[in-house]
Amino acid sequence: MSTKDIYILGIESSCDDTSASVILNGEVLSNVVANQEVHSKYGGVVPELASRAHQQNIVPVVQQAIAQAGITKKDLKAIAFTRGPGLMGSLLVGTSFAKSLSIGLNIPLIAVNHMQAHILAHFIKEEESKIPEFPFICLTISGGHTQIVKVTDHFEMEILGETKDDAVGEAFDKSAKILGLPYPGGPLIDKYAQLGNPKAFPFTQPKVGDLEFSFSGLKTQILYFIQKKVKEDPTFIEENLNDICASIQYTIVEILIKKLKNAVKHTGIKQIAIAGGVSANSEIRKRLLLAEKQWKWTTYIPKFEYTTDNAAMIAITGYLSYLNNSYTDIAVSAKARLKVTE
Questions:
Q1: Beta partners for 10?
Q2: What φ, ψ does residue 98 adopt, rounded to 5°?
Q3: Reduced to 3 states, what is the DSSP secondary structure of residue 14?
Q4: Vertex 255: Cα angle to 210 and 298 (nearest 5)
Q5: CA dihedral defined by 243, 249, 254, 259, rounded to 10 degrees?
Q6: In degrees, to the nearest 5, what angle opens at C-alpha 283 toward C-alphas 268 and 274?
Q7: Based on the domain organization, do 96 and 153 belong to the same domain?
Q8: Is 250 helix (H, G, I), strand (E, B) or coil?
Q9: Model-wide pTM > 0.85
Q10: Contact yes or no for 321/80 (Cβ under 8 A)
Q11: CATH (domain of 199)
């Protein structure tokens, strides 16, 4: 083992997935995720149940990540953890554990901004993946966030535009709920949309600023549309599910692409990345690859395992912070609300 080998342990516990990852010099050695099935019957994440499950999962998940990496705790150079944003109870479990491990091993502690980590997941070193060049534009799309971020350096970011109300992931999940699909519904809309006609049912796009988003009106529009159609024909959803899902997905992706085009126009930057859970959506990926040909963009699309909440993105952010000697005081506290620029 070289003295230059920098092993970073990342811990992620912002919502309902407990995850731990070990990174060596920017390469992922392990990325263990424990999902919480308990929330599916409630149609969404229950914060109290989430924090309780984190307490049960965190020790075995961290042990597994270290074992899979083929190292011992003594090889670690620093502990990186999610400080926020997220569910307070969930964040506290990860924060407390990371602090204790940092003190026990007498190694640095690194607090990570979850939203920055989604963006910096693009810097994980892998054979097939391209590393973005600065400056680039990143569209961060998840259940809690929808933002266009200008990234000038690893830790120099500026929000160019964001949602005025709901996040895009919530729009997908709520639309799925209206259709009677189980939680999480976003991936199911994507699945059924593959078989449908995206132009079957046109929905109007919200009128907001060039770089702003709004999804509350679209959700209401979808709700009233479905209620009206079901009243006329009780089997409407069943008989048109693929077309409905395709039309919803088409409208949402059109909004996202339109805003990205505006961001390119405003900044002149044609390096475009996506990040966050919704970046797993097949239609947004397809449209971005088309954009490379249509508008000569250079696009960066993360691997599926780095789109949803995972500790590899926390570990790579920790690694980049470690290289800058940017450590965190042990008195640090979790923050449920945290902007990508903080």
A1: 21, 80
A2: -60, -45
A3: coil
A4: 85
A5: 170
A6: 40
A7: no
A8: helix
A9: yes
A10: yes
A11: 3.30.420.40
Does 197 share its domain with 274? yes
* β-bridge partners, 27: 24
* Residue 19 near residue 12 (C-beta atoms within 8 A): yes
The residue with tokens 């050695």 is 29
* Contact in structure between 32 and 19 (CB atoms under 8 Å): yes
Give Cα separations from 79 to 108, 121, 215, 286, 325 (angstroms): 6, 17, 37, 36, 13
Q: Which band of pLDDT confidence, cut at 50, 70 and 90, is reported for residue 42?
A: very low
E-strand spans in the chain? 7-12, 18-24, 27-34, 76-84, 109-113, 136-141, 146-153, 156-162, 271-275, 298-300
Residue at 18 is within a domain: yes
Residue 45 dihedral angles phi and psi, to the nearest 5°: -75, 130
Phi first, then psi: give them for residue 201, nearest 5 degrees. Answer: -130, 100
Tell me the percentage of the chain whose pLDDT exceeds 90. 81
Q: Are 89 and 47 in contact (CB under 8 A)?
A: yes
Confidence check: pLDDT of 227 > 50: yes
